Amino acid sequence: MDRRDFIRISAAGAATAGLASCAPKTKNAAAAESLDTSISGEMLQNYPGIGVLGYGCMRWPMTRDAEGKEVIDQEKVNAMVDKALEHGVNYFDTSPVYLRGESERASAIALNRHPRDKWLLATKLSNFADGSYDNSILMYRRSLETFQTDYIDYYLLHAIHSSQDFKDRFEGTGILPFLLKEREAGRIRKLGFSIHSQQEGFETMMAAHEKYHWDFVQIQMNYLDWTHAGGRNINAKYLYEELAARDIPVVIMEPLRGGSLGSLPKRLSEQLKAIEPDRSIASWAFRFCGSFPKVLTALSGMTYMEHLNDNLHTFCNFKPLSESEFELLEKIADEHTRFPLVGCTGCQYCMPCPYGIDIPGVFRFYDDSITEGTYVSGPEQEKYARARRLYLASYSETVESVRQADHCISCGQCAPHCPQHIRIPRELRRIDAYIESLKQETL
Q: In terms of CATH architecture, what is 3-336?
């Protein structure tokens, strides 16, 4: 698909899409208090009845209970779910393993305050630790029990890595025939799988499509991964086009690449602000995803109400990318690859670290310092001494000293679990060397 075909097809998809009202329909006082009346218009739908903006329930807001333990802030979750539903967001994606196993519970509490036919449940068979038939059955039934429902709208084989992984966790255990029978009985409405960007695993699953008839597929897709996936990852362009050719609806994860496309380096963000000064940088990434007609929904892990508000502004009265805007994002993606970013998306699959390192936290701090311009380049930098002190103080404040990069012993247990194929021990050593050079003033 060349650029002109992309623009022609995406524009047609936006023009003919079914629409769900985003007009306020207050259901309770909490919803009324959270309502942003400046959001109006229609929620984009590429498939009837499903908002293209979907809710990723992996990053719910957290708070601390009376004992100081970190827990999900249920009150905020409820308020955001209320507002999302009022404005046409009705696809909610979770997993039994998200947020230390608490995401499903918190999502269920919020969603079950609304009629079952008003929301779509997407959850996963996340049988990484134990892929046995019995454990897989137990995990599936617990999801039904947690949500107090007798069916799951979208059920995913979670994070396929390779043909061997597919065989070990699903095809070779007998669980897949069971799931197919559950689909036939209507207790699973749609059956699919998620995969980040592993080509061998993707090709295996496509070869199995004729046998299993996947109803949808969840892939990592954004304007950076479109043609710049890097490393051993395969470009999202290939994944999307292969699925589109088979008429398989696409669910998008990581539309912001772990948040990195919501906060670009200054010289890149200025190019976008020059065209749309009143829109957020993140809105460009979501407009990219929404411009493809085979996208069922694009998941956003909206932790705060401001994230939800911003995304609603993008998807209500949606504006597809023009050809020139698409070309600009390609150019920005090309420039973005030249920055020394780690590229962590914060998925937490590498955690917990046996030595207590906050791997995503270390990577997030480092990448944010580059995109936000606080990275210390050297003594020639203006106000170097002050910048150096602030950087080290900020690092210690953001990441506990006992969880910093210098505690890595390169055991390598984390690396096989990274869907981005980041060489985690190497990156931790690189960051630790940089931090140490700032401490010793030898940069």
A: Alpha-Beta Barrel (3.20)
